[in-house]
Amino acid sequence: MTLPIILALDTKEIDQAQSWIKAASGQIDHFKIGLEFFLRHGITGIEKLRQGTDFKLFLDLKLYDIPNTIKGAVESVANLNPKFLTVHAAGGAKMISAAAMALPTGSITAVTVLTSFSEIEFQEMGQRQSIEDTTKNWAKIALSAGAKSLVCSPFEVSALRQLSDSAILITPGVRLEGDDPGDQARVMTPKQALSAGADFVVIGRSITKEWDGTATQMQKKIDLIATTLV
Ligand code: C5P
Hints:
By secondary structure, the chain is an alpha/beta fold.
């Protein structure tokens, strides 16, 4: 059985991404390609990764533009058949609706407030509502506009679960006890995030950092996380 983990392939190297997929694919079947990989290797890079081992694609492009441009952008990657494709919830209803119409078979995933924001930094941006209230407001708009999944921090998961039973809730910003949070400001453990109602947790550095090039090391790290989930 695979774990409810989406592994973030945050690397510029195709070989490294391929090795991570190969090493983790017995335990994890969802892999996230973000800007670091996509801006260097694009669609052909993803196709190359899939030749090795097929996997469920979480395409984390965090799109944000006017609706017509978003429509074109989503059409440009639709042939990759991403299970999840991210857009910023802050883009609003028309933008999200344009994205959803351009990807009828996939799940447009609205990213609410980034997990790297603290409440203070968020207010400094001129936001008058708290992160939680903003997240709930943006989530409602995104779901009504056709998003089927949402990205939020573990702190907002239970509030969003109350809003919708059917939305797929995905939380980055997870760390094991004692792990370095790095640039993430609102972190919880994977177990806390899943218990709060998340369907998937996104994990990158806790699994991929200080990789020694062996599958065994990565599998041990994933096993360790799996033991914390029970
Ligand atoms: O290494 P770490 O586990 O912090 O990686 C988290 C991943 O999730 C990164 O690829 C990051 O781009 C992504 N992400 C995030 N916060 C969001 C949306 C996506 O950290 N709100």
